[in-house]
């Protein structure tokens, strides 16, 4: 399979892939806790293509570019993405990308990771719950809405003024895999932060606040229950052609696939590192074979 991403749909995770990297059809392999899984990395990595935000569909790379180990998209496909434009100002069609941001409803959210780490972010309204699951948030609160350009201005203001993070690293997420909060405590944390922010926003940005913020507790979707005092999770930071990642699926947290290997050690595999590679995936147990120690 030519892996595109770990994809959350209907609050369930799957490996999204193309059987043929040159053809548009996409298939899905659903992941479930308790299933055996063996992923072997091939030698070839090809551009995953891009998401056509106008027609709302995934498109294969028109140039069929083969890539090295750093990126899953060629630069020309990156430029087609509206998210890439939002962060860099670079796009194949800047006018279309800006029109999309200015006309589509977006929401600002606070994500909670572990016991107390907060992140502020922006997502298009139809993708909001999927985005929270993609990030592996323990809980999310969607508290403001406007067009994409306006809501990003709000996000930057909150991050700068209230020192709320806009980025959480994979390592920080791995360190918090065993941490949890009750739904009630998680809601208290994010709502209290949102209230503090709302009380100090200037009127023009305060106008974007939703009358009733929408809270979601997401921890149960990941099917992961770890003892915070006794669990060590080994973070796989680098993938190489020839590696095999195998074990029983213990949980899926955002983009992290948690595997219990045959030696009973737990591994966190960021599936994003595998995007674009040609993989062999089998529903079987096999030895974990790594060329870099986690």
Features:
alpha+beta; 4-stranded antiparallel beta sheet; 34% strand; 6-stranded mixed beta sheet; 8 helices; globular; 294 residues
Structure description:
It is a single chain. The chain is built from eight helices and 15 strands. With 294 residues, the chain is α+β, with helices and mostly antiparallel strands. The strands form four sheets. Strands 11-14-13-12-4-15 form a six-stranded mixed sheet. A hairpin with an 8-residue loop joins strand 2 (12-18) and strand 3 (27-30). The protein is globular and about 60 Å long. The mean pLDDT is 94.
Summarize the structure.
By secondary structure, the protein is of the alpha+beta class. The chain has helices at 75-78, 82-88, 94-103, 128-135, 148-162, 170-175, 183-200, 203-206, and strands at residues 2-9, 12-18, 27-30, 36-45, 50-52, 57-59, 105-113, 117-124, 139-147, 209-217, 233-235, 244-253, 256-260, 266-270, 277-282. The chain has a 6-stranded mixed beta sheet. Strands 8-7-9-10 form a 4-stranded antiparallel beta sheet, with helices on both faces.
Mind sketching the topology for me?
Blueprint: E1 2-9, E2 12-18, E3 27-30, E4 36-45, E5 50-52, E6 57-59, H1 75-78, H2 82-88, H3 94-103, E7 105-113, E8 117-124, H4 128-135, E9 139-147, H5 148-162, H6 170-175, H7 183-200, H8 203-206, E10 209-217, E11 233-235, E12 244-253, E13 256-260, E14 266-270, E15 277-282
Parallel strand pairs: 11-14
Antiparallel strand pairs: 1-2, 2-3, 4-12, 4-15, 5-6, 7-8, 7-9, 9-10, 12-13, 13-14
Shape verdict:
globular
Q: Describe the sheet with the most strands.
A: 6 strands, mixed
Question: Structural class of the helix and strand makeup?
Answer: alpha+beta
Helix content: 10-25%
Can you write the helix and strand succession as a string?
A: EEEEEEHHHEEHEHHHHEEEEEE
Strand order of the largest sheet: 11-14-13-12-4-15
């Amino acid at each position: 399979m030519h892996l595109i991403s770990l994809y959350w749909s209907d609050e369930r995770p799957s490996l999204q892939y193309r059987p043929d990297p040159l053809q548009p059809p996409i298939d899905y392999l659903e992941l479930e806790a308790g299933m055996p899984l063996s992923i072997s990395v091939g030698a070839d990595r090809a551009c995953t293509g891009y998401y056509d935000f106008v027609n709302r569909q995934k498109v294969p790379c028109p140039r069929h570019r083969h890539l090295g180990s750093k990126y899953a998209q060629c630069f020309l496909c990156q430029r087609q993405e509206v998210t890439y434009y939002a962060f860099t100002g670079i796009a194949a069609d800047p006018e279309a990308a800006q029109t999309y941001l200015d006309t589509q409803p977006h929401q600002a959210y606070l994500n909670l990771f572990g016991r107390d780490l907060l992140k502020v972010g922006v997502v298009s309204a139809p993708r909001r719950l999927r985005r929270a699951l993609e990030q592996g948030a323990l809980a999310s609160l969607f508290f403001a809405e406007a067009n994409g350009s306006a809501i990003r201005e709000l996000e930057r203001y909150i991050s700068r003024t209230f020192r709320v993070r806009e980025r959480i690293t994979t390592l920080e997420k791995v360190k918090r895999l065993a941490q949890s909060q009750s739904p009630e405590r998680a809601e208290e944390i994010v709502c209290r932060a949102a209230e503090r922010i709302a009380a100090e926003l200037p009127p023009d940005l305060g106008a974007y606040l939703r009358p009733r913020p929408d809270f979601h507790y997401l921890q149960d979707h990941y099917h992961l229950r770890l003892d915070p005092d006794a669990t060590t999770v080994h973070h796989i930071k680098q993938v190489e052609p020839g590696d095999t990642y195998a074990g029983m699926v213990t949980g899926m947290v955002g983009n992290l696939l948690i595997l219990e290997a045959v030696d009973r050690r737990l591994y966190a595999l960021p599936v994003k590192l595998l995007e674009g590679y040609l993989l062999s995936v089998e529903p079987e147990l096999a030895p974990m074979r790594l060329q870099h120690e986690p």
